[in-house]
Each structure stands twice: as C-alpha cells, then as structure tokens.
Amino acid sequence: MGFNFSLFSLPKHRAFNYQPLYFDEKKEKMEERFSRLHEEEKGKDPGYIPGRLLRGKLRKAVYHNRRSPGSVMLNRIIILVFLVVLLVAAYYLSKSLGLFFASMG
Fold first, then answer.
1. pLDDT at residue 80, rounded to an integer
2. Alpha-carbon distance 38 to 44, whole Å?
3. DSSP state, 36?
4. How many helices (H) and strands (E) does the chain have?
5. Is the pTM of this model over 0.85?
6. 32-53 burial, b for 16+ CB within 10 Å, e for fewer?
7. Regions of the chain with pLDDT less than 70
C-alpha cells in the first residue's frame, strides 16, 4: 500500500536487446582458405617455374662478361693505375716518416 511519490522522476529501465548471430567456425575457415587460394591463382602464370628466371639471368650475366673483352682490359688498366698511385703514396709516406725519424735520432 505504498505510494511511490518522489520529487524527481526516475528514468525508465533500458533493456539491452542483443540477438547473437550464429557463427560457424568451420565455414569461416573454409571461406578464408578459398579466398586465399583464388588470390594465389590470380597472380600465377601457368608456365611459371620457380628460379628459372634467376638462373637465366645469372647465366646471361656470366656469358655477357665473357663476351666483352674490352671491359676486362679496362679493369686491368684501372687496377694498374690504382697500384701506381698506391706505390707513389707509400713512397712519399715512407720518405716523410724517414725524415721524421732521422731528425729524432
């Protein structure tokens, strides 16, 4: 027999209306596998053999280096010039160190 009387009106109770969706894990995994398989098939060339292009490029590069004798001669000239410059630098370095050690003794 009580009267519910208050100065402030209370808000009505809000219900959370959640309806769960059915989740089939096997179906999801199968769909994911199919999608990956289809993506892989799109990118593949039917005549593709792994490593064939790499081996071909390597063979071609070796053959090309053998076929160009001018580049071998150029490499030898560059090495010879480098050795001459290195010997001249070593001579002047030893000469300056020799004078340095001669003045100390």
1. 96
2. 10
3. H
4. 3, 0
5. no
6. eeeeeeeeeeeeeeeeeeeeee
7. 1-5, 43-53, 55, 62-70, 99-105
